[in-house]
Amino acid sequence: MNHSLFDVLIVGGGMAGASLAIALKESRLKIGLIEAKSLETDSQPSYDDRGIALSYGSQRIFETMGVWTHIVKHASPIQHIHVSERGRFGVTRLSAEQEKVPALGQVITAKYLGHALNQQLQQLDNLTLFCPRTVNAVVTEDEHVKVTLDNHHTLTAKLIVAADGRESTIRHCLNLSAWEQDYSQVAITANISTDKPHYGWAYERFTTSGPMALLPMTDKRSSLVWTVKAGEESALLSLPEEAFLKQLQHHFGYRAGRFIRVGERNSYPLILMQADMPVQARIVFIGNAAHSLHPIAGQGFNLGLRDVAVLAEHIFDAKDCGHAELLQRYQQQRQQDQDQVVKSTDQLVRLFSNDIPLLGHLRGAGLTLMDTMPVMKHWLAQKSMGLAQAQPKLARGVPLS
Ligand SMILES: Cc1cc2nc3c(=O)[nH]c(=O)nc-3n(C[C@H](O)[C@H](O)[C@H](O)COP(=O)(O)OP(=O)(O)OC[C@H]3O[C@@H](n4cnc5c(N)ncnc54)[C@H](O)[C@@H]3O)c2cc1C
């Protein structure tokens, strides 16, 4: 038996790669996962303190995969979403009750999501972990594809799944093109304590420098994503706690109460990326390696998890999981959702990140109008819950085995 021969090799064990390995746990596929960072440490940058809003659709995928019970312990439900613009009239409100769902989504710290996924990874019988290891090279042959690791070992598989993030090594090795858009914005994240409970409210607030989001978390805290123009972040990051909270309060207002404490602050440059050809001979790109979004609508990982659910469904029972037709069918099923979410997120950033007065009035009117139109609100809620597109088996509660 050749121990270096796999059905599927997943490159990158972040949220997308780890989720795919878990989704395939009951398949007959022999899987290898190569991850650059050790699973045992907190050094994994994808698994930091930022809050991740999981849509209702993502919750259902994790429920069917059997990992939701490990995630929900640390999650906070979103009962209401409040969308508004600073300094203007106009607001749209969504509620779980109106949508007849238990919650519009759930917020979990990336760190806890990482712990839950990593714990599961270590229990999978059909998985070999190469960790910490990096892939440095990839070569495609007719029937197989080969990767070389940093220890010079070569692994062979029928299919490589590149889940290695926005700066995908696999994409660079193959010299593949991607559409990139640098927003010249930076997201500052931090956990914030307020003087009143959040009652499950998530706030999306647009300001001229960029959007701000406040997501409900456990222990009466909220998770902040504050978008600022590139260059403005260093001053905010270095402010003492009290001065930072004062600035934040000034920009956000008092709708969520008084901000009284701030946890560790981090920053992320915001760059949109969409791979031009996410399917190659015996290679498929998923998650951030296929599309990396502005966090304005909290859709990045939710979109990636739908890649995972559809890909797992296609390869679960496949004789040759890297067959070109199978991969084309996968991409045909994913293309529309990927394009729509990438485009609508990009348009949202452009629409709200400017101070043209006429546009400001139109935005305010649009938010007010939306709030009075139940059909439009339902459409928006379905989109943010990840239920607007055809649902893969895992999202419908249908196990793959
Ligand atoms: C501020 C902020 C807020 C966000 N909020 C939300 C939200 O509310 N909801 C939501 O759905 N999404 C959100 N996102 C997006 C979400 O964080 C990403 O979509 C998600 O982390 C992408 O996961 P991934 O596994 O595809 O990629 P990554 O997290 O980038 O993981 C890639 C993995 O590949 C490994 N790797 C890289 N190169 C190699 C190599 N050569 N060999 C081996 N391993 C390699 C890395 O170590 C890493 O573990 C947010 C993002 C930001 C920045």
From TrEMBL:
<dbReference type="InterPro" id="IPR036188">
    <property type="entry name" value="FAD/NAD-bd_sf"/>
</dbReference>
<comment type="similarity">
    <text>Belongs to the UbiH/COQ6 family.</text>
</comment>
<feature type="domain" description="FAD-binding">
    <location>
        <begin position="7"/>
        <end position="344"/>
    </location>
</feature>
<dbReference type="InterPro" id="IPR018168">
    <property type="entry name" value="Ubi_Hdrlase_CS"/>
</dbReference>
<dbReference type="Pfam" id="PF01494">
    <property type="entry name" value="FAD_binding_3"/>
</dbReference>
<comment type="pathway">
    <text>Cofactor biosynthesis; ubiquinone biosynthesis.</text>
</comment>
<dbReference type="InterPro" id="IPR051205">
    <property type="entry name" value="UbiH/COQ6_monooxygenase"/>
</dbReference>
<keyword id="KW-0560">Oxidoreductase</keyword>
<keyword id="KW-0285">Flavoprotein</keyword>
<dbReference type="InterPro" id="IPR002938">
    <property type="entry name" value="FAD-bd"/>
</dbReference>
<dbReference type="InterPro" id="IPR010971">
    <property type="entry name" value="UbiH/COQ6"/>
</dbReference>
<protein>
    <submittedName>
        <fullName>2-octaprenyl-6-methoxyphenyl hydroxylase</fullName>
    </submittedName>
</protein>
<dbReference type="InterPro" id="IPR011295">
    <property type="entry name" value="UbiH"/>
</dbReference>
<keyword id="KW-0503">Monooxygenase</keyword>
<keyword id="KW-0274">FAD</keyword>
